[in-house]
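Q: Sequence in, structure out?
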Amino acid sequence: MEIINKRCSNKGDDDHLVVDIYPLSNYYFTSKPASSHVAAFKDDQTLADHALRLKSNYDARGMRTCVEAVLLVELFKHPHLLLLQVNNNIYKLPGGRLRPGESDVDGLKRKLLSKLSADDDNHRTKWEVGECIGTWWKSDFETLPYPYLPSSGKAPKECTKLYLVKLPSSRDFVVPKNYKLLAVPMCQLHESRKTYGSIIAGIPQLLSRFSINIVHT
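A: Exactly. Output:
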């Protein structure tokens, strides 16, 4: 991943895509009432419980399609990824499951409003959803996600799409009290699948085709 510290156009000299990121100190963080969605994690005492819940949802609704946001900030002159922490040991990208018939972009904006904005902020907060940088699939309820559709002959049970979301130079983040919003250095994610899971640990590689432009305002 190339890190540059000057203002660039949309394309660099080497035709790499450029992502502008801003210092973490530009952003403000407050909390709001706890989210009810965390209850599902507390109910899953084991991996078998989690798989059983996913199977029940699949039987009722079909394949689970999730959209998740890759949000980058600068800290100590290095890019950091914003992650939500649940129950002190589960790390998630902001996002979640799409509603039936909902588009990826509309669904991700709705989830970002739910997870990172004030509840009455629907008309003031704007989220700039960029391109899809990766798609992950699960062929079964207990398997690890793959960055391709496995040729197992089984219908996929889950699809997760990662979208690069551009942050403005400043913003208020309003996070449910039962989540923690963390800024994790990109260098810590690589080779950390046991801690963060395959999808999050794979983000540095997905971003390797971008130039990261640190903007100080």
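The helical segments are 39-43, 47-61, 104-116, 186-189, 193-201, 203-206.
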